[in-house]
Amino acid sequence: MGLWNWLVQGTWNTPAPVSPFSPQDSLETAIVGELFGVDPRIVTVDTAMRVPGLKRAIQMHQDVVSTMPLVQYDGGGVRSAEQPGWLQSSASGVPPLVRTKGLVKDLALGGQALLGCQLEDDRIVDAIHIPQAFWKITNAQLEVQEAIDAKYRQRLIYIPLGDSGILQDGVDTIRQARALDLARLVRLSSPPAGTELHLTDARFDEMTRKQKQKLARDYSQTRTETSVSVTPSYVEVKEHGDKAVDLFADATNSIRLDLANHCAVPAAAIEGAKAGGGGDMSYSNTSTERSELWDLGSRRYADAIAARLSLDDVSAPGTYVAFDVSDAFTTPTPTTAPVRED
């Protein structure tokens, strides 16, 4: 029985909620659904994370925020002498780093996240991230599935981002990216023929499919065995091998730029090579880029988590919780882990 199974007392692969944007019936939708079993216009957490640029952008925010330790400070900005153990440890077996990654992902995609806490005399002693698939808000009431261990439902800490998530604001761009991936798959699955045997005599238009296949096989076999080919007078050979297969590189880069804006990351961090330019992408993890990613993107998630954990139902009056960013932007990058309490 796996760790996650122990935490939720059930299977982990619970389906994510479907976007409220319902697709309309159309021939295109029917064909795509028949071929691939999916409708690119239905966006869930799972399908959204299959978009490479979106996945990379969210992972960047997760990595930036989760490597910073959560610390409790006194009102004057001084680190508290006694730190709450659950900030840097967990009896669940899931490290706080993974817990923070889950919170950041949910905040980025849905604009909200949830912590489940274990109490001891009304004091938080442990906490886990509860994935969005296991809770919902109905009529202003927070409902958590009983699959989550009861001890982690003793106190629920709802963390709002204060803004819509990418699944809402960026749903059109995600749909475009998914549709483009499916179109590329169709193109790769049935590339244009490299050689065309064009029948110039109308008398042969009534050839059966089997006869046409034999003509094509005979020509291909001859070309494989020798560099010389002989064709009947009614066959004109047209070579198309010099034509590049359009894999929608320009459209892909355009969508990645839109995703970068929605995800608040530097465009160069997720964009691909420009058409005809080879490896145009450049991104170095210097303090400048780290600072830009933090100030314009990752910080909003860290601030949302820290602000919620600083309220009096979590932190004692006169104290607050914040991420310790001191090691994150040190130049050169530290070679040792930041100091943690546990």
Automatic annotation (TrEMBL):
It comes from Microbacterium dauci. This is Phage portal protein.
